[in-house]
Amino acid sequence: xxxxxxxxxxxxxxxxxxxxxxxxxxxxxxxxxxxxxxxxxxxxxxxxxxxxxxxxxxxxxxxxxxxxxxxxxxxxxxxxxxxxxxxxxxxxxxxxxxxxxxxxxxxxxxxxxxxxxxxxxxxxxxx
Length: 127
Known about the structure:
The structure is a single chain. The protein is α+β, with helices and mostly antiparallel strands and 127 residues long. Helix content is 43%, strand content 20%. A five-stranded antiparallel β-sheet has the order 1-5-4-3-2, with helices on one face. A hairpin with a 4-residue loop joins strand 4 and strand 5. The termini are far apart.
């Protein structure tokens, strides 16, 4: 028998921005999330195909030798790091924190006698 194809899996340990990767490497990559959740990246040398998922998990297929798998990952890894997803803070938490601070400020003013009742607090909130 003869080995025709070797497959491997890897996890880079960080999420990947697939849209940015396919945009920057359109000659080698294709991504149709409506059809398949992974980006298909065809490396020329060694001639292997990567399936790259947002989670950072990879499938490498098409290698003839095990050394092709490691060489291919070594070549592609810096590109994956370049398109690493960064943490995004939501404005919802900022808005919630601002509302909590406003409520705490109104409670403090009520305790200090600066506001006479809750109606005044509502009016001040609108201003």
